[in-house]
Amino acid sequence: MSRTPIVPFAHGDADGSFIGKSPAFRQLVRMIDRIAPTSHPVLIFGPTGSGKELVARRVHAGSEQRDHPFVDINCGAIPEHLVEAELFGHVKGAFTGASETRQGLFQQVGQGTLLLDEIGELPLALQPKLLRVLETRTFRPVGSSANLRFDGRIVAATHRDLRELANEGRFREDLYYRLAVFVLAVPGLEQRVEDIPALIAHFAAGHPRKLEFSAAAIRQLCAHPWPGHIRQLRNLVSQLSVLAESTTIDADALAPFLANEKAERVSRASLADMLLQLDGRDKLAAAEDLLVDRALERTGGNKSAAAVLLGVGRKTIERRLKAREQHHQNARADLARAHELVDDSRFADAVPLLRRCLETLQANGEQEDVRRLQFDAYRLLGTSLRSVHGWLHAEATACYAAALKIGEGLCDAREIAMIQFGIWTTQLTTLQLKHARATAQDMLQRAQNSGDPVALDEAHIALTNTLFWLGDSEEALACLARGNLSGIGRHDARTGSQGIDLAGLALTFEGLSAFHTGAFDRARHAMDMLAERASDAGGHAFAHAVNLQGAAWLACLFDDMERLGTLASELEGISIKHGFAFYRGVGQVLRGCHVASLGRFDEAQAVMLDGFDNHMVCHGGALFFSFKAWQHGELLLRAGRAAESRAMLAAAIEETLARQERVYMGELLVTQARAQWALGDLSAAESGLRTALSTALALGSVPARVDAARHLAELLRVSGRIDEGIDTLERALRALAPGVTPRADAAMDLLHTLTAARVQVG
Length: 762
Fold this sequence. Notes:
By secondary structure, the protein is mostly helical. Among the domains are: 23-186, 3-Layer(aba) Sandwich (Rossmann fold), CATH 3.40.50; 190-264, Helicase, Ruva Protein, domain 3 (Orthogonal Bundle), CATH 1.10.8.60; 271-383, no CATH class; 620-762, Tetratricopeptide repeat domain (Serine Threonine Protein Phosphatase 5, Tetratricopeptide repeat, Alpha Horseshoe). It has 35 helices and 13 strands. β8 (138-139) and β9 form a beta hairpin. α27 (581-597) runs antiparallel to α28 (601-616) and α31 packs antiparallel against α32 (682-699). It comes from Caballeronia novacaledonica. Residues 18-242 form the Sigma-54 factor interaction domain. This is Fis family transcriptional regulator.
C-alpha cells in the first residue's frame, strides 16, 4: 500500500506539513521546489482557504534567503491611508501622528521574503510605487528624500484574477507582469479530493483527543462540498475533536456537524455577515432584491401586501421590479454580445461581459428565466476562461460546477452533457483518468438518450481522449468508429457546444492512436489532413490551434523535423496572438524537439522547459508530462548528459506510474535503458530494455516495441549474442512493411546487418 508523501515543513500553524498525493498537488510541489531557489517574484493564485500562505512559506524555506525574515502583510486588512506607511515606513513628522521614524516592511524584511497577501486589494495609487520597487530595487519612506535599497524577494498572493482586474482598470497590467514572473496555482480542495483522508488524519493528529473516522464518514467527507477548502476542513475536525460524543466518527456522528453548516440559527450580526456575502458589488441592492422577492412570495405576488410587509409604498415595489427588468434586459444584451465574441474566438473580450451579466442576475437567481440566463452565462464564462487561462483555471472549473448545479432539473440531457464535457476536461487534465472515463461514459449515456448529435460527438471525443492517455489506443480507435468520427476530411466541421473543434480533435486522436497501434499509413494520412486543415485561411482561431497541435505532434512522432519546425512555430505564434496559453506551451515543447534535432541542445532544453513549466503546467500540462519527459530525456541523452537523463527519467517514470498516464510509458523505459547503457551499465540496460519490450507488448504500443527491440538487439550484438538479437527483431518487425517510420526502418537495417553477420560467422 503506497504511503501519502509528507514533506516536513517547520511552521507553527496546524498545516505544518505539505500533505497530498493528488496530481494537482504534486505538480504544485514540484513547481515550488523548482522556483524557490531563484530570487524572482512569485504570484500565488488560489481560492481562499487553500493554503496560499503556506505555499509562500515553502518558497521562502527553499530559497537561499531561508535564514532571513519571512514577513507577511494582508493588503486588504489595513486602512488605505496607512498602507503606504506600513510598506515603506515613514520619517518623523511625515504626517499627523508620525511622532517617530518607523521602518516599513520593505526595510524590516532585509534580504528575506515579503508576502503581499491579497495583492488585488492594494490601492491603485500605491501600485506604481510597488512597481518601482520591483524595477529599481529601491523605495522611499513617506516624508523622506532619500531612497533605500530593497534586497529581499516579493511574493504576492491573491484569490482574484489579476488579469481581469487589469482589464477592468483596477490593477496595473505592468505590475501584474512584474509580479507574475512565476505563477503558482494552488488547487482548491475540489481538485484534491483524494487528499482529504490524509488531511483529516493530519488535522486529527494535532488534537489531544484522538479521533478515528469510519470508511463511511471518510466517503461522506470526500463527497461534501468545501467552499472554504482546507481551512474549512481543518475547522470541522477541530469541532469534532471537542464536541463529538465519541472518538469514533461514523456517518451518523458526522451528520449533525455537517447539517449545522446550513441549519445554524443566526444572530443579527451573523445575518448581516451573510448578506455581505451576497454576490455582486452592490450588496445593498442585492439584499433589497432578496427582501422584495421574499415578500412577494409570502403574499402570493400581491404588490400592495408585499409593500405593507416591507413597510414601504407600493410604488417602491414597482420601481424596484421595473429597474430589475431593465437590468435583465442589459444582462441579455451582454450575454448575446458575449456569444458573438466567443464564436469569433475573442474569449478575453467576452469575460468582462459575462461577469457583468452574472453580477446583474445574482440577486434574482430563483426565477426560472433568470436561472436559464445564469446557466448560459456560466457555461460561456467557463469556456472563455479556459480558452484564455487553460484547462486547470480554478474559476473556470467553478463556473462549470455552478452551471451543472443550476442546470439539474432545468435543462435537458443535451445541455447537461455539454457541462459535463467541461467537468471532464478538468478530470482529464488533472489526470483523474478513472473519474474522467466514468464521466465520459455518463456523457455518452445521456447523449444517446437525448439523440443530440453534438452531445454524441463530444461524448465520443471525451471517451476516445481518455482511452488514449490510458494507453488503450485500440479501444480509442473503436470508439471513434462507433461515433462515426473516423476518417475526418479536410473540410469536415464538427464544432462542440463550447466552441471546440471536435473534428480536429477526432483526427488528432485517430492519428495518435493509429501510430500507437502500428497503423502508420493511417496515422500519416491523419497528419497530412491536419496540416491541410491548418493551412486553410480564416476559420476559427481555436480550431486552427487544435489542427496545428495535432499535425505537429504527429510530425514529431514520425521524426519529420522539417515539417515539425514550421508547424510548432506557427502553433506558438497563433497561441500568443489569441492568448491560448496552454497551446503556446505545447508549441514550445514541440519546437524544442525540432531545435534539439539541429544539435542546439541548450537552447532546445530552455525552450522546452519554459513552455512546459510556465505555460502548460498552470494551464493543463499534467496531461503532457510523460511526452515532455520522454523528449527531454532524449535531448539530454543526445547532448551527452546520460546521468542527468537517467535521473530525470527515473523520477518521471515513477510519476507516470502513479498517474496511470500509460501511453508513453514504453518510450520512457527505452530512453532510460539507453541512458544506463551510455553510462556503461550493460546489465541494467538489458534488463530495462526487456522491461520496456514487455510493457510495450502489454500496452499494444508498436513504436515502443520496435524501439526496445532495436536497441536490445544492438546490445545483444555487442555482447556476442547475434542469434538472440535477430530473433528479438524478427518478432518485433513481423507485421511491419518497409518505409513506415524512420525508427522502424533503422530496426530493419539492423536486422539485415545482424543476419549478414550471422552468415559470415557461419
